[in-house]
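WARN  no MSA supplied for this record, continuing single-sequence
INFO  ligand: S-adenosylmethionine
INFO  echoing inputs
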Amino acid sequence: MTDPRHASRPAQADVEHPRTIRSFVRRAGRSTSGQERALRELAPRFVLPYQARALDAAAAFGDPPASRLPLILEIGSGMGDATAHIAARMPDKRFLACEVHEPGVGALLMKIEAAQLGNLRIVAHDAVEVIAHMLPEQSLAGIHVFFPDPWHKLRHHKRRLIQPPFVHTLARHLQPGGYLHCATDWQPYAEQMLAVLSAEPLLANRAGDGYAQRPDYRPETKFERRGVRLGHGVWDLVFTRRESATATD
Ligand SMILES: C[S@@+](CC[C@H](N)C(=O)[O-])C[C@H]1O[C@@H](n2cnc3c(N)ncnc32)[C@H](O)[C@@H]1O
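INFO  complex generated
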């Protein structure tokens, strides 16, 4: 007879908090010494600890309380090239970058230091949890999701970020008039993005009914330039949050 102490059943914590499907795997890969130094020295100022309660954005950015600059969230900032470029270009906005890959966080910290960016903060945590717990609804002026992991294999499609329930959550976190900007170089994912975003009643496609031109604020990445030379495509999608789900174009 099986010893009940060794029977395989989920722990109580798993029953109460079932693990969600993640859109990332923690990649191996060590930080360089420069990234490690940046993590050590700059994280206390620029990396906000994940917390399961609303972020006090004014305190986190050190704004005077009266200042309410628009807040833009980036999901999966990678090595932070586009993030730092855009934050430098838009000093009148505040940027919150979510990234789980530590060397990427270190790389972005180095860029923050090099360009003296005061309007950018990082949360080194799953963006799905950050948006659910740290950011109130209608608190964001924009959301950037640039080249999210495409999860090519059919059995991994459930890990893709851009799916109806999460897009609905993203839309609810945008202020009316705020925008969701996604970009991908994987055509099947672009098609999924277009279908999912177009079906979300809170969102309206700025480009009418198709893909958008790359907005000038999004820099072309090295990888993207190479892909374009090789004849691969890149698709941008920019959707705006409607006043309410009942409004139509
Ligand atoms: C393919 S990379 C693209 C990075 C960057 N946006 C670019 O264009 O180069 C996707 C990034 O998203 C991050 N990521 C995926 N899911 C995430 C999540 N739920 N929260 C935070 N970061 C996530 C990964 O760690 C990875 O660095």
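The first helix runs from residue 12 to 16.
INFO  checksum written, moving to next record
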